[in-house]
């Protein structure tokens, strides 16, 4: 019975088709397995090479920056031979790169010749090692730039270098750079000395599997010889050996068993992820919209508050100005009716300007100056020749802006708080100083009135504090009172 079943099985066409398919399946698996293994090895080398070269190039670029600095100084020296100019250039470069210890101009040694390129060497000074970059500027002198190896280590460690490798620089059996700063200037391992000797005689990039004494892990070590005009430094990039080839090979062996399950699981996870992502995106969009609405409302509220505060402060100026002007008019009426009439007409024009600026937060300096000059003319009518003014403002300054009724307020304070007589006239000078308008007058103060409140100056300071961080200043110096208000762009 068993024999019949066996004979029937072996004689069945479906059995042999199944065997053939199974053999093809295993042959395909074997082929894929070997292909993946080879591809893994190639990709591991390519990845190691790309990461290593990228990391090494970053360090090389940092070293090349010093070459560029020397070349820049040389060009500037050729244009300007003054020593103080050189010192200023050096100070700027050192401020930009704190790793530079010194930049000096030294004489060439007798019989010493340099090419047009930068000469690199290791320099020992006071038991400290330095990179020394030299560049001949003429037949007798060279520029020398010193970089302490520890300062260079600090520059590299503080730089945002996106790399999964750590770099070492070797020259003549010592570490010029190592991520462990304690090893800088110390002797390298014996095996690295052998690699250095080999690469100096056969300058070809090399990848070696070894164990890192820094990470205490197996690593890929990529050795690259970097040559300058006179030096050959061995750069090494060390990448952790993540056993990529073995991992990929094992994955290939298990692929046939788990492929369908993996695809099914992937589709389910992917579908679920898409669903949750879309749901989260909608939720975030709603939150962002709500936040934007809140920010918009907050900004609108802030602008409303600023506008309200400005209007409140400005409202305190008009009664203050009108009160003082009417006082002056009252005095003039009793003296000269015609002059008082002119005074009243001019005052109405001034007040029309004030009403015109009611809804403006800033005005041009030329508008405010014209208003102030009219005000001064009225006060000169009142005080005859007891007020002397000097205004020195350029056309360029007149294009700036200031707060309305600010310049007039400062002039009014000069008149209000200074003793004015034939023997002691009031001298007022208006001029620009940097980004300020200055109103200066001879300091001869009256006795302060009981009703003096300082409201005008306080309002002026508050108005400026809303629109700019630059502060108004008021001081007494050398017998003069100086009031300075900022110019606005």
Automatic annotation (TrEMBL):
GO terms for molecular function: protein histidine kinase activity. It comes from Dysgonomonas termitidis. It comes from the Bacteria. The chain crosses the membrane at residues 12-32, 255-275. This is Sensor histidine kinase. Residues 309-386 form the Signal transduction histidine kinase internal region domain. Its EC number is 2.7.13.3. Pfam families: His_kinase (PF06580). It is an enzyme of class 2 (transferase). Keywords: Kinase, Membrane, Transferase, Transmembrane, Transmembrane helix.
């Amino acid at each position: 019975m068993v024999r019949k079943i066996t004979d029937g099985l072996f004689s069945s066409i479906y059995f042999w088709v199944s065997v053939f398919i199974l053999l093809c399946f295993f042959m395909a698996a074997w082929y894929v397995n070997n292909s993946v293994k080879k591809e893994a090895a190639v990709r591991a080398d390519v990845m190691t090479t790309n990461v290593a070269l990228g990391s090494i190039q970053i360090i090389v670029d940092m070293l090349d920056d010093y070459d560029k600095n020397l070349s820049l100084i040389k060009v500037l020296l050729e244009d300007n031979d003054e020593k103080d100019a050189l010192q200023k250039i050096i100070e700027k470069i050192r401020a930009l790169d704190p790793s530079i210890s010194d930049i000096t101009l030294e004489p060439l040694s007798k019989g010493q010749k340099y090419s047009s390129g930068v000469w690199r060497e290791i320099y020992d000074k006071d038991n400290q090692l330095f990179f020394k970059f030299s560049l001949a500027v003429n037949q007798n002198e060279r520029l020398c730039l010193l970089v302490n190896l520890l300062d260079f280590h600090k520059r590299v460690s503080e730089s945002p270098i996106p790399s999964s490798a750590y770099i070492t620089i070797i020259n003549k059996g010592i570490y010029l750079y190592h991520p462990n700063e304690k090893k800088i200037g110390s002797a390298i391992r014996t095996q690295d000395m052998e690699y250095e000797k080999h690469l100096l005689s056969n300058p070809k990039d090399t990848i070696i599997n070894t164990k890192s004494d820094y990470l205490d892990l197996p690593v890929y070590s990529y050795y690259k010889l970097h040559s300058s005009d006179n030096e050959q430094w061995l750069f090494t990039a060390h990448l952790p050996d993540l056993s990529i080839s073995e991992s990929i090979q094992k994955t290939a062996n298990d692929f046939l068993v788990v492929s369908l399950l993996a695809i099914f699981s992937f589709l389910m996870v992917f579908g679920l992820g898409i669903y949750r992502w879309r749901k989260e995106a909608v939720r975030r969009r709603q939150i962002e919209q709500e936040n934007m609405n809140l920010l918009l409302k907050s900004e609108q509220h802030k602008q409303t508050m600023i506008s309200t505060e400005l209007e409140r402060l400005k409202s305190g100026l008009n009664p203050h100005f009108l009160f003082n002007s009417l006082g002056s008019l009252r005095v003039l009426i009793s003296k000269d009716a015609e002059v008082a009439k002119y005074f009243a007409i001019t005052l109405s024009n001034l007040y029309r300007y004030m009403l015109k600026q009611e809804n403006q937060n800033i005005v041009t300096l030329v508008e405010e100056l014209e208003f102030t000059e009219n005000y001064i003319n009225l006060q000169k009518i009142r005080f005859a020749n007891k007020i002397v003014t000097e205004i020195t403002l350029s056309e360029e300054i007149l294009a700036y802006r200031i707060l309305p009724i600010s310049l007039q307020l400062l002039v009014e304070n000069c008149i209000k708080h200074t003793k004015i007589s034939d023997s002691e006239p009031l001298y007022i000078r208006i001029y620009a100083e940097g980004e300020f308008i200055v109103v200066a007058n001879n300091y001869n103060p009256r006795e302060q009135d009981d009703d003096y409140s300082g409201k005008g100056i306080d309002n002026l300071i508050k108005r400026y504090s809303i629109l700019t961080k630059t502060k108004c200043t008021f001081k007494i110096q050398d017998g003069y009172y100086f009031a300075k208000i900022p110019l606005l762009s």
